[in-house]
């Protein structure tokens, strides 16, 4: 309690980050269960009983998670998952499907269409919290990877500009401006080492011929 008061007095007030979950189900019982197990986790809910309404809510609102009730939707589950996934673009929005029983074919189709995880009813607080936490960590890793790629692209553009301005025409350096699929540090070092070795061999051979003469 004293720590909380100290933080407030210092002007630092801990604020929980609110997130938004789209629940797609026409079952009031299922929706109530999901809301009950997550009612203390700063999650706001958008509920849709139909796929058309769900797609509209998905593209017109900020959504952090999607839960699809496979037992009560009005279109094939994998088609709905795919329709949501293609609207995500490059953003990572976890899609979780829930069902009352395991149907391996349906679950496999959903995973192939872009589903990230699945839950079997009844839903427990620990289970869904664990899965959401894992998906949040995956989201952070994807963002870090994206930032890393962006940094590489910026560095590549700067290097290309510098080389163009200085009009450097060495073939070895030109390798640096090629795509990552073509260029690697190993390739450049290997080419450089082979060139040095070949030059050394040629010089030794020339020296031997000269001495023989």
Verbal overview:
With 213 residues, the protein is of the alpha/beta class. Helices cover 58% and strands 12% of the residues. It has eight helices and five strands. The chain has helices spanning 2-9, 28-37, 51-60, 77-88, 104-113, 125-166, 171-174, 185-212, and strands spanning 19-24, 43-48, 65-69, 95-99, 117-120. The chain has a five-stranded parallel beta sheet with strand order 2-1-3-4-5, sandwiched between helices. α3 packs parallel to α4 (77-88) and α4 (77-88) packs parallel to α5 (104-113). The chain is globular, with a radius of gyration of 29 Å. Mean pLDDT is 74; it is low at 1-10, 180-194 and 205-211.
Radius of gyration: 29 Å
What's the order of the H and E elements? Answer: HEHEHEHEHEHHH
Largest sheet: 5 strands, parallel
> What integer is the average pLDDT?
74
Taking strands numbered 1, 2, ... along the chain, how are they ordered across the largest sheet? 2-1-3-4-5
What share of the residues does DSSP label as strand, in percent? Answer: 5-15%
Number of strands: 5
Question: Which features would summarize this protein structure in a list?
Answer:
5 strands; 213 residues; disordered C terminus; five-stranded parallel beta sheet; alpha/beta; 8 helices
Short overview:
It is built from eight helices and five strands; from the N terminus they run αβαβαβαβαβααα. The chain has 213 residues and is of the alpha/beta class.
Give me the secondary-structure topology.
Layout: H1 2-9, E1 19-24, H2 28-37, E2 43-48, H3 51-60, E3 65-69, H4 77-88, E4 95-99, H5 104-113, E5 117-120, H6 125-166, H7 171-174, H8 185-212
Parallel strand pairs: 1-2, 1-3, 3-4, 4-5
Helix pairs in contact: 3-4, 4-5
